[in-house]
Amino acid sequence: MSIHDPRVAASPAGPELPLFGWRARHRRKKEEALLVREAEWATEQARLQTILGEARRLVEENWIRGAWFAVRDASGRTRLVRGGRAIMLSDNQIVGSCVVGSVIRAAGGTAAAHEQSVQRVLDAVWHALREPEDAPVQWCPPPMTRVQHLRDLTRWNDYEARSADEVSSLLLTAERVVLFSED
Fold first, then answer.
1. How far is CA 179 from CA 44, 102, 117, in A?
2. Which of 12, 44, 61, 75 is most deeply packed, by most CB within 10 A?
3. What is the Cα–Cα distance from 104 to 172, expressed in whole angstroms?
4. Regarding predicted confidence, which is higher, 168 or 89?
């Protein structure tokens, strides 16, 4: 085959030439890093969707409003736990939870409340509540913004006419948000 073969000249990208030198090494490293990042994001997406699915199951089983968690005390009475004390609960005491509490429980319990996966799931749930589904998700909002998002979710959950079906539907929408979002 000659160098001026018409089949090679007709190729829009031209012939594939082996890449040598620092530019080629740099390009390969960038491509490899992109592949690693895409694989990590796919793993993270799967984890977030697992948490959302489990949170939805918890909401369907025993959803509450008025607090993050409901616990059964030593006398067998159920009481609501609000505020900072909610994160210090033992997971085996919890018998019900709101949308935020369900996400925390689904991610591994109150010990997992500050983990990145919990924060990202809550970001996705807030996004599903307040933003168009196809809009980009703000995965790492500033701390005060994240606190405001938690307040929004809690207020929305505690609305008097809210039902467990609506909360479950929101979590399902958040699953779609995660599925179609980019890191």
1. 10, 20, 14
2. 44
3. 16
4. 168
Which residues pair with residue 115 across a beta bridge?
none
Contact 165/46 with Cβ under 8 angstroms?
no
- Provide DSSP, 117-181: HHHHHHHHHHHHHHS-TTSPP-SS--HHHHHHHHHHHHHHHH-TT--HHHHHHHHHHHHHHHHT-
Select from 70, 80, 82, 57 the least CA-distant residue to 154. Answer: 82
* Domain residue ranges of the chain, discontinuous segments joined by +: 20-179
Cα Rg, the chain, nearest whole Å: 24
DSSP 61-100: HHB-SSSSEEEE-TTS-EEEE-GGGGGGS-GGGEEEE-HH
Buried b / exposed e over 106-142, threshold 16 CB at 10 Å, is: bbeebebbeeebbbbbbbbbbbbbeeeeeeebeeeee
Phi–psi pair at 129, nearest 5 degrees = -75, -40
pTM of the predicted protein model: 0.81
Q: In what order do the strands lie in the sheet with 94-97?
A: 78-81, 69-72, 94-97
Q: 59-98 as b/e, with b when 16 or more CB fall inside 10 Å?
A: beeebbbebbbbbeeeeeeeeebeeeebbebeeeebebbb
